[in-house]
Fold each of these.
Amino acid sequence: MNEQPENYAATLVAGGKSLFEDPDWIKKVLVGGLISIFPVANFLTWGYTYRVFVDGLNGAPSLVLPSWTDWRPFFRVGFWIFLITLGYVILGAFGLVAFISLTQGGVSGDPQTMTMVGLGSIALFNTVSPVVFTRFAQYGRVWGCFEPDAIFRDLSRVIRLDYIQLVFLFYGLWTMSLIVFLGLPIVGIPLVSVSQFVLILLFSHVFGRMIGKRQQDPPTLDQPNTE
């Protein structure tokens, strides 16, 4: 079935409008943004944004903010998302170290180099994470997210110019939030956290819709089976 063209910039704008139309959007966004500051507790926000992503995969026409009332599934799924992310970041770090070793004749162990390796591996994973999390949504298995042949096949099906543009736009807005808010005394970190939570919600919805339209069998599961 041929994909119907969609203007994903317009989808992003529409997602922002629908977010602000929720009468409880301030409470929902503040809860997610502030929780995301704290380790382990931020599994809740990972599961929450994953819920928005899955809604997009299933063709939700607009971004709908879930209620925080049923928080246990968010935490459970957020834990699996954390494990998947950690696995890819470690693999990415090893890959970058190997690449630097081959091209530079060795890797310096200084903090600056290690920081660049860590940030690079995170950036690489964030670029492909929508495709990885789609496999988790479809099959509900953590190991299914680490099948190289399937991941490369899905990437070749999904990645086009508009996908790359969305990735760069996300990184640009994410960096801008750091520049604008992080230096503010007292409120800087909370403002960064809340603004980036909103960004992740918006882009989760858009990437979900994009990938859902480009996958032959978009997922219909409300929650993955992680057994």
Note: Residues 45 and 114 are 28 Å apart (CA to CA).
Amino acid sequence: MKPMFLNDLTIMRWYLVQTYGICIAVGLFMGVAMGSLLTMGACIAAMIPLLTAFSLLSYDELNNWQAYRLAMPLSRNDIVSGRYLCILAVALVSTLLGLATSFLVGLIAQLLGPASMIAALSFESNPTGLVVASTLFGLSGSLIMVAALIPPAMKSGMTKGVRFAPFIIMFVFLAGASLLGDDGVLVPYIPRMLDLFGSSDMGAVAAAGIVCVAALVLLAISHQATRRLYATRDF
């Protein structure tokens, strides 16, 4: 598993630096347009892990690398586990980068004062708790989409498997809408949940943390499913 983990990180090292720069630009543009700092951390935490998964799966088909890789002393379980570990590591680093970048931009906006173009990104308008919560929500959404993308892509290849990913993602979000939408199963319990977490910033962080844990559980289920699917794949 470790060689596969290091292999994926080696492939992606410069790509991740470039993606981080792009995410900063996108986050700033969205933040200034929307007048909120909450988009910065969410953008970085959501985009980098998802784009990493897409890129690694695309590299697998480059020059038929995925078939050549099986000739190396790597088991199929090692390949799958190493890939998920790489994406988790990237997700953790991107979340920390998202938080650090958000706090840095908020501090700069605070120092520049209300006359600057980024005045709306200061901490006066964006409580730190909400910045943390938005970043965790962005990470959770990314992990859910990654969990839906990898199993069909590693079973059938990126070209064929990606066709199924939108349907899986749509099913996940439709299931969530049916639970939380009008007359949803969980709707009667929402007031109790709001009372439990409260309306404070820390309540938002706690709710985001629970959603993040749920996303990690889905990723673990996705990992086990991918191990079984990839074990039966023919090249």
Note: The chain has one domain: 2-231.
Amino acid sequence: MPEAVSDDLQPRRSRARTALVWGLSIVSTVVMLWVARERFAVEMWPVHFTIVRPDLLVFAALVHLPYATVRAGRLRWVLDDLVSAAGGGPRLDRRVLYGSGFVSSLILLLMPLKLGELSRPILLASERQPGVTGAAALGAVGLERVLDGLLICAMLFGGLALVEHGDGSRLAVVHRFGHGMGLAFILAFVAALVAARDPAAWGARARGWFALLGVSAADTLGGFVVRVATSFRVLYDARRLAPMIASSILYWAITTFQLALVAGACGLELGPAAATATVAIIGLSIQLPGGPAQAGTFQVGAGAALSLLCDPDSYARGGATFVATMFGLQLVGAIVMAVPGAWLLASARARRKAGPGTPGPGA
């Protein structure tokens, strides 16, 4: 009887946790959207929606293909090494690499409180590629995010140093936020460097730390630490780290170019430095846990950036249109790219089931 009661409680607890997560997400979205409206006059959908250069908007939409492709492909510099070390060939199946990247970009937008960040490690691990365990994939994605964070902070301070801005108090807030996020990313990068030097030693330490949980749990957690730390080995391999950083710089350059195109389509006057700083402020803002599609955090970041870096008259004319257009473009782009992403993953699974001798594209 007690077992039956316990079994009955599990689904209830799961539903309660799900409701709590979504409830917090919705509250966060409402609060952030209210801040965006009250502080920066930004709505989810503006009353007056005006595109002055439709050609630039079309160009920006086309840029989403190289944007998504470069973004999805950056992990190959980590994952190829894991596959090769496990004897699975020279590289990860490219259908898994790009398929997981395209699909996870949409899941990331749909899930609340940044929980979608777990989607790509889960997708990668589910494809059963040699060496690419859930822990290793989590470590690879985490390292990519840390490098992104460091680049975003460099873009923020570099862009702000090269552009004129009038609101000193608002600039001070942005600087403090940037310094705090930058410190967090630096500490995470140093931790990854330290862990990558000797993954086995850190695994042994983890087993000692968790010994009170029992031998089995301690061994499991120790193995998890080893696999995560092993995925950081790229930090000591210049042949892989250099192209990974270069591809990340290219990704953020494409992101900035796309944003500048949308700004031009909406009649905003943003120079290269201002566009770079705008991308950085939005990028840091959406790191905060929020609602699905980054609703709220995106609007606050975009509104804060434009109100600081854009001419007031230009912002009044096209700021709200820009925020809505950029927000919609990322969502529509993710939906469109998820279709070939799902096809690539299905193709990889079909080939795996058929056997290793079956030919296929992208292997």
Note: The chain has 13 helices and no strands.
Amino acid sequence: MPVSRTAFASRRGRRSSRFVIFAVALVVASPAPLARSQDDAANRLLDQAAALYEQGSRRESLDKYREALDLLGKSRDRESLLVCCSNASVVAANLGEYEVSYSMASRALGIAVDLGDLEGQAKSLNNLGLAAQFLGRNNEARSRYCGALALNRERRDIESVVTNLGNIGVIEFNSGRLAEALSIYRRALALAREYASEPWAVGQRRIATANLGAVMEKVGESSLALEMYESLLRDPDLPLDQAASLHTSLGRVFLQLEDPGQALSCFEIASNEFESLGDAGGQSNVALHIGATLCQRLKRHGEAQASFGKALEIATRIRDRNEELFDLLFLGKCLLHTGDVALAVSRLHEALSVAQECGSLEGRWSAMFGLGKAAEVSGRPIDALKHHLEGLALVERERESHVPDAFRAGFLADKEESCAAAVRLTLGGGAGPTTPSERMVHAFGIVERFRARSLLDRLEAAPL
């Protein structure tokens, strides 16, 4: 379910970091303080744009960069044009304008290549990866991030290497490759600890810890995730954008711990923080979480639909495909609760299509489970059983390949609904074997396969 944001670097090298929703990763765009423009008017606009961003006025900041771009496009000052395009890409991404961000980063990359500026090339590749990720092009995003990583290793820029590792980890996380994500986040944390005396190390340790918390949360280790998130929120120097994302993560953990009231309080805090930042992507994500809490835990389905609708409208407007995927999933499931099966099925098929496009394991399983429930409600048990068994098979394949051994049992835990539905449909006689004894054997086989995998996983994870 994760989505990324970016960080900003002013022309004088001041940085303000941006966490991710769900996976909590940082994407840093920090061009070097290059030569100042000889055009005083353009120079003033660049300074004003940077100052406006630091004040939280992101829309006004982007407008200033566009004004500066008009002037610099007519000059020979390519270095300042690079700074302008690079920073404009970052601001546009923070505003949810991912097509604009991609265009600006692409232009910055071309300028950096012309200038032979390896740092500029690395940062532009990083920003292109960010925009591609939000636009649902995860394979391209991974390629861009890996290109940036190679350049930064060549330049021996350890801070940027840590940043690139975190961003690659987000792609692995989004794709369901939790073992890979966990390994990458641990490498990032190890580097941040190794270079603890560097001024950037504290921020990068914070990011890596949050990323590890996201993995713990995903595999069902709620207490560990809670401890990590609460520890980070106690930091008095925590930037507001990171606090907003962490409040969102903390709310999810409280849901896992069966405390919807506390979860809703966390989401409302995050919503106010994202609103004050003008962060459309953050607002969409929190609206999704509020809707899920209202629907699944508090059974306030009308309010939940309104919240999901708000989340989907924002995600569609800013073309955040990963966010759009989960908005569609949760809206579809909520519509099933209210009896609007036809619209629910339509939304769930849309979600499945987006999940396949984005390569999201969680999205594909969730869509299959929702379609199975819809078929069951519609009196089509054969179709329902097919969807549930396909979902279980998908999860089992991915679990064997991409989930760390110590966490496989936890990974299966939140998929028990699919197992239960498949057993219920098999025993009901409307799908699968025809005789009662055959149905019992088939149902028992499903249960034993599921329980045996969980038991073996727990035994493998236990110390000898």
Note: The first strand starts at residue 8 and ends at 9.
